[in-house]
């Protein structure tokens, strides 16, 4: 895993949305690499959050990497608006992209964003292999470690088998884990091979977010140094 950097991505879903710009700034000051933006349509998941207008507003306040996680039924409809709004990464769910993932990847790249694919806990990991192995591949795989929809849920350790399989097969892939990550669960995810860590409630509820972010980073780096 040499050269594959640890990325710590606080999930802004746990932030005070009424003060999004200052919350983003607070996370970056605390050592965040990316800002994870959970876009939910109230249909793919039973929750409704933000869309391109909010990304566009936040983009005016920061140059940070905006890691957008699309929990929506029609991801293709969001590519153009999010590209224009200034999103950096665009991660769609395979469950709603079985027929058009090639078109999605191509379109995401053409708008200057980094394409990623996410899978729900019940989706077998084999379903994303062809997207990573394609001539025009995704550059990130997001393994959900809770049911998508809400922050503050319990980490599912049984998802680590998917992370291990991906890491064995793709030594330099960016593997992101999302849901229930914090100081008490990070070692499981890091040792399975995840290098990109989304953390919402554990970071935002901490008295010292910088300390949590640093703990997450050290765990990922410790595994990398041992390889
Ligand atoms: C859940 C979202 C996550 C969520 C993580 O559907 O994709 O990004 O905000 O929050 P925590 O870290 O609290 O589980
Ligand atoms: Zn997410």
Short description:
This protein is α/β, with parallel strands linked by helices and 227 residues long.
The CATH superfamily title = Aldolase class I
- Give Rg in angstroms: 16 Å
Shape: globular
CATH architecture: Alpha-Beta Barrel
Which ligands accompany this protein?
A: D-xylitol-5-phosphate, zinc ion
What composes the largest sheet? 8 strands, parallel
**What number of domains?**
1
Helix content: 25-40%
Keywords:
globular, binds D-xylitol-5-phosphate, binds zinc ion, 227 residues, TIM Barrel, 8-stranded parallel beta sheet, 36% helix, 8 strands, alpha/beta, single chain
Topology:
Blueprint: E1 7-10, H1 20-29, E2 34-40, H2 52-59, E3 65-71, H3 76-85, E4 89-93, H4 101-110, E5 114-119, H5 129-133, E6 140-144, H6 160-169, E7 174-178, H7 186-192, E8 196-199, H8 201-204, H9 209-225
Parallel strand pairs: 1-8, 2-3, 3-4, 4-5, 5-6, 6-7, 7-8
The site of D-xylitol-5-phosphate has 22 residues, from strand 2, strand 8 and helix 8.
